[in-house]
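User: For documentation purposes, I need each entry recorded in a consistent format: the amino acid sequence on its own, followed directly by the corresponding structure tokens. There are two entries in this batch. Please keep commentary to a minimum and don't merge the entries.

Assistant: Recorded as requested. Entry 1:
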Amino acid sequence: MDSIPISLLCRDCGDLGFKWGIYLPIYPVYVEAEDRSRHEFAIAVDENLHGLDLGSIDDFRREYRVSVTKIRLHQPSFRSRVLHAYNSTCAICRLHHPELLDAAHILPDVHPRGAPVVPNGITLCKLHHAAFDRNLLGIRPDFVVEIRSELLREIDGPMLQHDIKEMNGTQLGLPGERASRPDTARLEERYQELIEVARPRPYRQGLRSRLVNDNTTDALGPACSMG
């Protein structure tokens, strides 16, 4: 589900002016209760909550329902093995706090080669794990980190500058044991996915999906050799 730009009439903006922002649409939703005296509505954003017999909005706020969640049974074992291989250190920023680290899959569970084995995993901090999953940063098969060019051009606070942009071109921290290092074939496939996502649409068709040394700028930043 993609975010969409939207403008809202907002009392806090003064004179019911417009307030711009990016919002995530959630649908369908259901109006479950109304308090006309306070101009409030109770909205169910989960179908499991739709149709509950609630007497008031306050009752609605206190209502809970147990839901079933599907979990990956192998994840605790996978995480412990990957973190052990990387000495509980983020392979990108070298953060050394296990409570802030994840075992990131190179290829996801649903992929035919997305097995929960150490060569398909990389220890990443939660920030870099999220950026990797969202294809905001990539890891080349030669273990070099690349940041999407739009992020490199973006001006924001110190977190973007120091924790994301300055990681561009850095070498991935690797386990000492060769058998535990990321599988280069998996990295290659994942990197090709990143290039396809990052490439501007008018240029996607008919172009090579690898970066080359041609003194141009690709969607991921300065062009470079894959090695």
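Entry 2:
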Amino acid sequence: MAADFSRVRVLIVDDNGYMLTILRTILHGFGIKQIFESKDPADAFDLVRSDSVDIIITDYQMEILDGLDFVRLVRTADDSPNPLVPIIMLSAYSEKSKVMLARDAGVTEFCCKPVTAKEMFSKIASVINEPRPFIRNKNYFGPDRRRANPDSGTYKGPERRQARQKVGAESKASDEEVQVDEA
């Protein structure tokens, strides 16, 4: 069954015009009609505040404000209208340390360049079909970084970190889940 992405609104943030063209072509091939583009993360954040977007695709390394700073701005700025928006980060740098920095900034998915249509489709389908709960604590706000099923772990003892706690619920767990209703 083919996915219908015709109503998905995507923002691409990349300071490389050639990469914007490649991504736009790939997204059009998926049937995505509403694509916003920005070469400047600051302008992109203004766009996020003025227009509703469903998915953000951003480059890791850009001038002045890099992709990590942009992600943190979307996730934690007081005037961010949608801190829960899925964010897919693209990077030519795929070292574990870079991926972990992106994850810890609040990125939903990470995709290595050169990007393929198959990989981009997989990431977009993942953020739409398998949304992860969001976690808020004093040091982090973003999608749950634990991808494994918490019930499948080997350790079941009293020190096991609690998962999926509702925001506002009193708990000994340090992480809290933000419940999101999908329309």
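Summary note for entry 2:
The beta strands are 9-13, 34-38, 55-59, 87-91, 109-112, 134-136, 141-143, 176-178.
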